[in-house]
Amino acid sequence: MSLPFTSPLDPRLDELWENRSELGPGDAAARGIVVAAVNALDRGEARAAFVDGGGEVVVDERAKRAILLAFRVLGLSRAQVGDFHYNDRIPLKSHLDGVRVVPGAIARWGSYLGRGVVLMPSFVNIGAYVGDGTMVDTWATVGSCAQVGQNVHLSGGVGVGGVLEPPSAVPVVIEDEAFVGSRSMVVEGARVRTGAKLGAGTILTRTTRVFDVETGEELPRGEVPAWSVCVSGTRVRSFPGGDFGMPCVLVLRRLTEGEPLDRLALNDLLREHGVSG
Ligand SMILES: CC(C)(COP(=O)(O)OP(=O)(O)OC[C@H]1O[C@@H](n2cnc3c(N)ncnc32)[C@H](O)[C@@H]1OP(=O)(O)O)[C@@H](O)C(=O)NCCC(=O)NCCS
């Protein structure tokens, strides 16, 4: 059974949340509390959500509140990169030790990037957590508060959905050693369990139906099992107007724990970036 969770973040955030309609960029005290909380997310000392020892996803509502409050207590600020001009409340992430960030990649303050992460030109939003050794390939987007584990590969154009409101909403969780094929979408609190390999173009939402093709069994919706190879499929559903194919995810086969898929062997040279700082 999971133990009750106590957020490591300042409990005064709850009070600020209750009074959020009265807050604005002029509230220096509130801003100090909120900035400290988002800094803790930025450094990985707090997380918007995590998988506990019992395998349950635990959401830190206080972390989500801190992020939402940041949009109230931070003023708009102008920034410029070359000819590009910006006007935003959330600055870019500046704490990039041990991470390779390729030009064109954008990580916002309040996202955490573990050691050895490679960001190709991609986007990582506030509150997202990207574990050690993970590759975020070109045009992949990691939404606010999404939780991505260690040694994950998010292929080109993958969309990992974000969720901020309501604060209790469970974010997308992609666990260690998972592979998400090109242009896949994992959204709305869907979950890719440890070592799962999702084929290119797979769409997984919280209500996507998932079937094991070996057994015919329907598995829990919105998640793909650990150490499995999955692709998008269709199932036939009868409507008053006829029978139509509806999307689903098919578990093609199971892998043994830790088993690599040769076809997905990635070029280690591209991931090895020698950043030791
Ligand atoms: C899912 C995947 C890993 C499966 O590879 P595999 O185990 O070698 O399986 P196969 O290619 O033999 O495909 C098995 C079946 O699934 C189908 N299939 C394969 N990939 C599929 C996909 N993405 N979506 C739907 N069906 C797919 C094949 O047509 C095949 O059907 P069949 O048995 O009726 O002929 C692979 O197809 C894939 O999508 N890789 C991701 C590629 C990618 O995104 N790379 C990123 C660049 S680094």
Please explain how this structure is put together.
Keywords: Acyltransferase, Repeat, Transferase. One of its GO terms (molecular function) is 2,3,4,5-tetrahydropyridine-2,6-dicarboxylate N-succinyltransferase activity. By secondary structure, the chain is α/β, with parallel strands linked by helices. The protein folds into two domains: 12-73, Orthogonal Bundle (Tetrahydrodipicolinate-N-succinyltransferase, Chain A, domain 1), CATH 1.10.166.10; 90-256, 3 Solenoid (UDP N-Acetylglucosamine Acyltransferase, domain 1). 14% of the residues lie in helices and 30% in strands. It contains four helices and 26 strands. It has helices spanning 12-18, 28-42, 61-73, 268-271; strands at 49-51, 57-59, 77-81, 84-88, 100-101, 106-107, 112-113, 118-119, 123-124, 129-130, 135-136, 141-142, 147-148, 153-154, 159-160, 173-174, 179-180, 185-186, 191-192, 197-198, 203-204, 210-212, 218-219, 223-224, 228-239, 242-254. The strands form five sheets. A ten-stranded mixed beta sheet has the order 5-8-11-14-17-20-25-26-22-23, with no helix packed on it. The protein has a six-stranded parallel beta sheet with strand order 6-9-12-15-18-21, with no helix packed on it. A six-stranded parallel beta sheet has the order 7-10-13-16-19-24, with no helix packed on it. Strand 22 (210-212) and strand 23 form a beta hairpin. It starts with 11 loop residues before the first helix and ends in a 6-residue tail after the last helix. Bound molecules: coenzyme A (COA). Coenzyme A (COA) is lined by residues 155, 181-182, 197, 199-201, 229, 231-232, 252, 261, 263-264. Coenzyme A (COA) binds at residues 155, 181-182, 197, 199-201, 229, 231-232, 252, 261, 263-264.
